Amino acid sequence: MEVDRKDSEKGRFTLVFLAAPGNVDEARTRHAPLLELTWNWDPETYEGGRNFGHLAFLVDDIYALCQHLHDHGVIINRPPRDGHMAFVRSPDGISIELLQRGDPLPARQPWSSMENTGVW
């Protein structure tokens, strides 16, 4: 069920947020899992697993999750330098965005100085 929608004229995309029917009220306050669908307004050729925009998940502690993923061999393609957003890719190349729930966390090393790796 759709719980929110945001259009970005500048970025030329629309974000649509979905939640399971039993989680709609909690999802509206960002206390339950959401699925973010991204619609890019301009035509794009998707390849390498990007046969759509990407998936996005809210996480409780972006630094802790990225560290856990990194410790288990997952490449952090776009590190959470800003304490708010990171990207990884699934084994089949799907781009996955990780978003800090609530306000961004304060910048923290080693993340704040890490460069991007590969594509995200």
From TrEMBL:
Domain of life the protein comes from: Bacteria
InterPro entries: Glyas_Bleomycin-R_OHBP_Dase (IPR029068), Glyas_Fos-R_dOase_dom (IPR004360), VOC_core (IPR037523)
Domain VOC: 1-101
Pfam families: Glyoxalase
GO MF annotation list: lyase activity
PROSITE patterns named in the record: VOC
Alphabetical UniProt keywords: Lyase
Alphabetical list of PANTHER family matching this protein: LACTOYLGLUTATHIONE LYASE, LACTOYLGLUTATHIONE LYASE GLYOXALASE I
Protein name (database record): Lactoylglutathione lyase
Organism of this sequence: Iodidimonas nitroreducens
